[in-house]
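Chain and conformation:
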Amino acid sequence: MIKKEMIAMLLAGGQGSRLGVLTANIAKPAVAFGGKYRIIDFPLSNCINSGVDTVGVLTQYQPLALNTHIGIGIPWDLDRNVGGVSILPPYEKSTNSEWYTGTANAIYQNLRFMEYYNPDYVLILGGDHIYKMDYEVMLDFHKANKADITLATLAVPMEEASRFGIVIADENKQIQEFEEKPEHPRSNLASMGIYIFSWPVLRDALIKLKDQPSCDFGKHIIPYCHEKGSRIFAYEFNGYWKDVGTLGAYWEANMELIDLIPVFNLYEEFWKIFTKSEKIPPQYVAADAIVDKAIIGEASEIYGEVHNSVIGAGVIIKPGVVVRDSIIMNSVEIGENTTIDKAIIAENTKIGANCKLGVGEEAPNKVKPSVYAFGLVTIGEDSVVPDGVSIGKNTAISGETEASDYPDNELKAGETLIKVGDR
């Protein structure tokens, strides 16, 4: 019998619908971040830095890029004979094939994986947050309080509290009450969706609630354990933590990396963020190129101007190009004399010459006003934008577009252009 003190279960099946075309063909945790990483690198690196060497990654939606990225876990030192990283997709049972229907249902479907390691504690993580956290410190807190469950919590501004699961704790940090997205919150301690369970408590709750439709931790498992009298504690985290679930938050988190004194530092020696890195050539910046306040990925070639932007690996920015306040992901090519203002351009995209992205006044997006907002131009992966077009703000483009898709060579602010089936 293998025995592990604590194993981690990382929920990485999220569709990330509020990221629009960025997650049309890719799970949210696999979205590129910071010119070099993918979002899932952060919880995975936290695990190995915290001494957690057994991680189950639960995938579901469009998992190909994620699975390829994680591979056998070499970059995170998770290629172990015992433990290491395991990809856990929903598997087909003989009677019916079941998708994961809720966060707890996903964990329940992998009961045998957890039983195999017979851990004392199980750490439940989301795969879509940007933060650095020592889970070992949280485990020490869990043990010191003889807790059955510990929730990582974060103090949020009171006016934002209704967006979160809120906990009410006593002076010993023992949780008395939960409120899931309360209209009138009575506390500003928000659950971060990071839990440590003592294994018998988790196992019992998952089995008891196995028939609960869309079984979820916040809505079902924790209230069930609370009613049963489990000791539940709030561990307060006070570091940087960002849910990059919207295009605005995703853009902001990338931009914060290039601040003069970044709130979130990717350059610390003692808490490295690991990633799978293709061994590719260094970046090249031409003699007359201009670069200020930017992250530039490996193998990128810069012949134009880059201001206040995050540029991924293998990007080609041709002469006369000006890029401002933008995120350009891996292997994008930008044609000569094109100007880009406040855009997010996904991987393997080709932007033509003499284009203008992010021009004019803002107008709300006609199709998804809550997704394509923040004054951004968002372009999905593998897209093509022809020469000489002008693109307004709060717009979205996906697919191989051609000149005839742009009346008067223009995509007006608030418009969406999605070509399906010609990819």
In short: The longest strand covers residues 189-198. The two ends are 49 Å apart (CA to CA). Residues 217-227 form the longest helix (11 residues).
